[in-house]
Design a protein that fits this description.
CATH topology of the largest domain: Nitrilase/N-carbamoyl-D-aminoacid amidohydrolase
CATH class of the largest domain: Alpha Beta
Distance between the termini: 80 Å
Number of helices: 18
Strand order of the largest sheet: 13-12-9-8-7-6-15
Number of domains: 2
Number of strands: 20
CATH architecture of the largest domain: 4-Layer Sandwich
Strand content: 15-25%
Helix content: 25-40%
C-alpha cells in the first residue's frame, strides 16, 4: 500500500522541461560550453528535470567548412565530454557535431549523470535555400526513446519535425509522450507564425507534448529569432520564449494528458531503440514556475528587431567596437543609423557626411538633424576638391565627351575611399546603406556606395525601408528620422536635380515586380499577366540579370526575406537565359 502511494505521488509531480534559447558563437567551443553550463545551472535552480539546447549549440550554427577540418570535429567531441560534467541533477539535450564510425553527424547528445548516455543523429538533412547539410553530414537512421521515470522522451532535430511523417511519429509510436525538437531555424519576415502552426499540428497529430528549442542570435548573414515553444498534446501553446533575445522557457508537463496507448510505431524513420535512464529524485517542494507565452511581434517591429540583433552580433562577435556610416541625408542612411544606434549605442556610431557640388541644403541639414537626434558624432568631409582633381586628371582623356554616369560614380567612389580610410585609421567597421531594390537593379556603385564591411539593408526592399523608418519614429514617439527625409523624393544627388525615378520605376511598382521575379521566381510572362507593362517587366528583369556581377562583390548583409541574394539565390553571372 505504501509502495502504491509512493508511485502515485511520484506520478503526480509534473515533468518539468526547460528550453535554453541561447546565442552561441561559431567555433567558440569553450565559450559555448560555458554558456551552456550557465543555463544548465539556471534550469537546475528552477527544478527542471530536463533542459534542451538548440541545434549544434556547442559548435555554433552553421559552422560551414569548419566541419571539413577533422581537428575541429575532434575538438567538438572533446568539448561535449567536458560539457557532460555539468549534467548532474538534470538531464541535458545538447546540440552538437558527432563523429560516429568516421561519419560526421548533426547530432543531439543526451547527457545524464555526467555522462554521454546516447546520441541521436539528424535524419532529414535540408539542402535548399541557406542550407547545405548534405555537404557536411551523413543522415542518422536510428530513432531513440529515452525513458526517464514515467516520461518517454523522443529527440529530433529541426527538419526532422517539419515533415508530417518524420521521426517523431516512430518515437511516439514507441512510447514517447514528450517530443524534444532542437532547432536552428533561420529567420525571415513572417516565418514565426508558420512555425507555430506546424508545431501545433504535430502536437495534435501525435497526442504528445512538443518542446521546440530554437537558436537566437546572428551569424554572418543569418539571424535566428528564438521563439522557443512548449505545446500541449491538444495543440495549446503552454509557453513561448521572447523573440530575438536569450531566454529560458520552462513549463510543467502533465504526463497523464498524453494520449495513448501506443501499440505500434507508425511511419517515420528507422528502427526505434529504447533507453532507460535512472531518474533523479524529484522534489515536491521545488519552486513554482509560471508558464509564460511571450507576446508576438507586429510585422515591422519583428523585422526591425531582427536587423538590430543581426548587426549587434556581427559587430560584437567580430570584435569591432565602433561602426561608421555615410550619412547622406537620405532615408536609407537615416534608417541604418537608427538600427546601428539601437544595436550598439550612440557612442559607438560615427556618421560621416560628404557633401558635393550637387548636395542640396535640405539633405545636408537632414544629415545633421539625424546625427543630433540619435546622439552620434558627425564628421564632415566635403568631396569637391577630390572630385575636381579627378576631373582635371581625366580632362584630356575625356575631352569632347559629355558627362554621364562615369562622373557620378567617381563621386560615389571618393566617398567610399574616405569611409574606408577612416576604417583603416581607427578600426571602425563601415556599414553600407544600400537596400535590396537598389542592389537588385544595379542602382549602386562598385567600390563606391557598395564599399564597406557589412550591409544592414541588403535584403530590405525600398518600400520596407519607409515602413521601418515610420515604425522607428512611432516607437520613439518623435521624428528621430526627420519627416522631411521620409517625404522627400529619393535621390543619389550625383547630378543636378537627380531623382531615383529618373533611372528606375516608382519603388511601389518596382518592388512588386522584384518580389515576383526574385522571391517567387515568376517568369516575365507570368509577371505581365499580373497587370504590369511588358516593356517595364523586361527592363526590370534585365537589370536584375545583368547586375549579378555587382552583387557578388557586395559586402555580406542580413537575410530578411525568404530569398536573399547570395545564400538563397545563386544565379550564374554568365547567363543568357531570359
Amino acid at each position: 500500500m505504501n509502495e502504491k502511494k509512493s508511485r502515485s505521488a511520484a506520478a503526480a509531480i509534473p515533468f518539468r522541461v526547460a528550453l535554453a534559447q541561447v546565442d552561441p558563437t561559431v567555433g567558440d567551443l569553450a565559450g559555448n560550453r560555458e554558456l551552456m553550463c550557465k543555463y544548465i545551472e539556471m534550469a537546475k535552480a528552477l527544478g527542471a528535470d530536463l533542459v534542451a539546447f538548440p541545434e549544434m549549440c556547442l559548435t555554433g550554427y552553421p559552422p560551414e567548412d569548419l566541419l571539413l577540418r577533422p581537428h575541429f570535429v575532434a575538438d567538438s567531441k572533446a568539448a561535449l565530454r567536458r560539457l557532460a560534467s555539468c549534467a548532474d541533477g538534470i538531464t541535458v539535450v545538447a546540440g552538437c557535431v558527432y563523429n560516429r564510425g568516421g561519419q560526421v553527424h548533426n547530432a543531439a547528445a543526451v547527457l545524464h549523470r555526467k555522462r554521454i548516455v546516447g546520441v541521436y543523429c539528424k535524419q532529414l538533412l535540408p539542402n535548399y535555400g541557406v542550407f547545405d547539410e548534405k555537404r557536411y553530414f551523413a543522415p542518422g537512421e536510428e530513432n531513440i526513446v529515452w525513458h526517464l521515470g514515467e516520461a518517454g522522451i523522443g529527440v529530433s532535430i529541426c527538419e526532422d519535425i517539419w515533415l508530417n511523417d518524420g521521426p517523431h511519429l516512430a518515437q511516439v509510436g514507441a512510447g514517447a509522450g514528450v517530443i524534444v525538437n532542437i532547432s536552428s531555424s533561420p529567420y525571415h519576415a513572417g516565418k514565426h507564425p508558420g512555425r507555430q502552426k506546424m508545431l501545433r499540428a504535430r502536437a495534435r497529430a501525435t497526442g504528445a507534448y512538443v518542446c521546440y528549442a530554437n537558436l537566437v542570435g546572428g551569424q554572418d548573414e543569418l539571424i535566428f529569432d528564438g521563439g522557443s515553444m512548449i505545446i500541449s498534446p491538444t495543440g495549446k501553446m503552454i509557453a513561448m520564449g521572447t523573440q530575438f533575445e536569450e531566454d529560458l522557457v520552462v513549463a510543467d508537463l502533465d504526463l497523464s494528458a498524453v494520449r495513448g496507448p501506443r501499440k505500434s510505431a507508425p511511419p517515420g524513420g528507422g528502427p526505434v531503440a529504447a533507453r532507460k535512464l535512472q531518474p533523479y529524485k524529484r522534489q515536491n517542494d521545488r519552486p513554482q514556475v509560471a508558464c509564460r507565452v511571450a507576446p508576438g511581434l507586429a510585422r515591422w517591429e519583428e523585422v526591425y528587431c531582427a536587423l538590430v540583433l543581426g548587426l549587434r552580433d556581427y559587430v560584437v562577435k567580430n570584435r569591432f567596437e565602433k561602426v561608421t556610416i555615410g550619412l547622406s541625408g537620405g532615408i536609407d542612411s537615416a534608417l541604418t543609423a537608427a538600427v546601428a544606434v539601437d544595436a550598439l549605442g550612440s557612442e559607438n556610431v560615427i556618421g560621416v557626411t560628404m557633401p558635393s557640388r550637387y548636395t542640396s541644403n535640405a539633405t545636408l541639414s537632414d544629415s545633421g538633424r539625424t546625427a543630433r537626434n540619435f546622439g552620434i558624432r558627425l564628421i564632415t568631409l566635403p568631396i569637391e576638391n577630390a572630385f575636381r582633381a579627378y576631373l582635371d586628371d581625366l580632362a584630356d582623356v575625356f575631352d569632347g565627351l559629355a558627362p554621364d554616369t562615369t562622373e557620378e560614380n567617381i563621386q560615389a567612389r571618393i566617398r567610399g575611399n574616405l569611409l574606408m580610410a577612416l576604417s583603416n585609421k581607427f578600426g571602425w567597421l563601415v556599414i553600407t546603406t544600400g537596400n535590396k531594390s537598389e542592389t537588385s537593379t544595379g542602382y549602386c556603385t562598385l567600390y563606391g556606395d557598395m564599399a564597406g564591411g557589412f550591409s544592414i539593408l541588403k535584403d530590405v526592399p525600398k518600400t520596407w525601408v519607409y515602413k521601418l523608418a515610420e515604425h522607428r519614429n512611432r516607437q520613439a514617439g518623435a521624428d528621430y528620422i526627420p519627416q522631411s527625409i521620409i517625404d522627400r523624393a529619393p535621390s543619389a544627388e550625383l547630378r543636378p536635380d537627380q531623382k531615383d525615378e529618373d533611372s528606375l520605376p516608382p519603388y511601389d511598382v518596382l518592388d512588386q515586380i522584384l518580389d515576383a521575379y526574385i522571391e517567387k521566381d515568376k517568369s516575365r510572362a507570368q509577371i505581365e499577366k499580373m497587370g504590369f507593362d511588358p516593356g517595364l517587366v523586361a527592363r526590370v528583369a534585365g537589370l536584375v540579370d545583368r547586375n549579378e556581377y555587382k552583387r557578388r562583390q557586395a559586402p555580406p548583409g542580413l537575410k530578411i526575406t525568404p530569398k536573399a541574394f547570395g545564400r538563397d539565390r545563386r544565379m550564374p553571372i554568365v547567363n543568357r537565359y531570359t
